[in-house]
Amino acid sequence: MYLTAGQHTIRLNIINGNATYDYLNFTTLSGLLLTLNDDNNTVAGPSGPTLTGVNDEDILLFNNGSYSVFFDGSDVGVGQNLQGFQLMPDGTILMTFANLFNHGGDTYRPQDIVRFTPTSLGTNTSGSFSMVFDGSNFGLSDTNANAAIDGFYYNASQNRYLISTVGDPGFSITGNSGGNNVRDEDIFQVDPSTGTRSWYLDGSDVGFDRTNAAENIVAFGLNSNGHVYFSTFGNFNVSHSSTSLSGRGNDIGIFIPTFAGPDTTGTFVNPLYFVGGVSGNNLNGLAGELISGFFVIP
User: Fold this and answer.
1) C-beta separation of 279 from 287 below 8 A
2) Using an 8 Å Cβ cutoff, are 74 and 81 in contact?
3) What is the DSSP secondary structure assignment for residue 209, as one 8-state letter?
4) Of the candidates 43, 165, 37, 175, which has an alpha carbon nearest to the alpha carbon of residue 113?
5) Three-state SS for 137?
6) What is the mean pLDDT of each run of 10 residues along the chain (298 residues)?
């Protein structure tokens, strides 16, 4: 479970040695975690400070108007675009990468989801990686670049992986009157116990333009009420059920499904949840940047 914000220490009691040791000292969080899609960024929130040299393998924490480094990918050999991620209640981080990632003798592909188990975080990140979702076992072919995962969310209560891909993953899912082909503006779910794929959100049903690459859903997450937080590859302008929303690739919007699955319905929340900023009005310090992944901390 998540702890309240503040400094916490987990203590490991070694019975035979009759001693207690600090196992992991960490600060619990509130706010927004995010990654950007290119290297050598300079980022400053409205409350400062200015961060320089922020790369696409780093995760930033935005809280109370300030950015700080939460995960430094170069410390653990990532060195490439960290495409999507999810902070888990046990403190581990699920991740997916834009390119092949070799680490410790293991190979992780863009169609996979990997778990990072930290021993420390921040500007001195350390820990280990392990596979949790091998996409090739669930129809995401290693040889199909469009089947690479750009956004995902693990729904632990239902044991489902919700996934959005870079492009057409090369399979269809039946039951959708608007068409069965899965595209980059869609979200499908996988039951890892059976391998069954099913619809979660058909983006074109709710106004995402399947012919416009900018409206590719590149990152998303769910809150406890099932509201879908999302970010796109570029500018978006969507409308459904008398609601509409527009934004940029450095913004985060919210969609509230009334029916999640094939023939998706629901409403958009206006205003935007997070506004990154534009030239001349760099509200939250991300003018000219694109968000490649985010996680809203409960």
Assistant:
1) yes
2) no
3) -
4) 165
5) helix
6) 39 43 43 95 93 96 95 95 95 96 94 98 96 96 94 96 95 79 93 96 93 95 96 96 96 96 94 92 92 95
Q: Please identify which residue in the block is written with the tokens 């350390």.
A: 126
Tell me, yes or no, whether 1 lies in a domain.
no
Within 8 A by CB and 6+ apart from 61, the residues are 29, 31, 32, 33, 67, 68, 69, 70
Tokens 């009005």: give the residue: 281
Q: Which two tokens stand for residue 216?
A: 């590719």
When divided into structural domains, the chain yields a total of 1
Q: List the domain range (segments joined by +) for residue 89.
A: 6-297
Structure tokens at 55: 């790369």
Which pair of tokens denotes residue 46?
A: 């409205």
Query: Are the C-beta atoms of residues 151 and 220 closer than 8 Å to each other?
Result: yes
Burial of 297: CB neighbours in 10 Å, binned 0-12, 13-18, 19+: middle
